[in-house]
Specification:
There is one protein chain. The chain has 90 residues and is mainly β. The chain has a single domain, classed as Sandwich (Jelly Rolls). 0% of the residues lie in helices and 50% in strands. It has no helices and eight strands. The strands form two sheets. The protein has a four-stranded antiparallel sheet, with no helix packed on it. Strands 2-7-4-5 form a four-stranded antiparallel sheet, with no helix packed on it. The protein is globular and about 35 Å long.
């Protein structure tokens, strides 16, 4: 199994946190900062439509067949935050 990981600064403009990966078997996104980041599956995500990820919380998807393989985007309502991700493949 292999994995990639990195840090991404997220602010009030939607940013791509995680690129699409057709081989993905799992992903983890952690809000490592102090403001809520809202995550979604395209660049149209807003603080009204995204899934809120509270400060220091994480979001995990795992499974061989049911994992989202597309991009994950994030945005904040105000300020910026540091997000970290892991993306693993077989």
């Amino acid at each position: 199994m292999s994995a990639s990981y990195n840090a991404v600064s997220t602010s009030t403009t939607a940013v791509n946190i995680l690129a699409p990966n057709n081989g993905r078997r799992g992903l983890l996104i952690k809000n490592n900062g102090g403001v809520i980041v809202y995550i979604g599956f395209d660049n149209a995500v807003t603080s009204s439509t995204g899934l809120p990820l509270l400060p220091q919380d994480s979001f995990t998807l795992t499974g061989e067949h049911g994992v989202w393989k597309g991009a994950v985007w994030g945005i904040t309502a105000s300020g910026s935050t540091d997000c970290r991700y892991w993306d693993w493949t077989p």
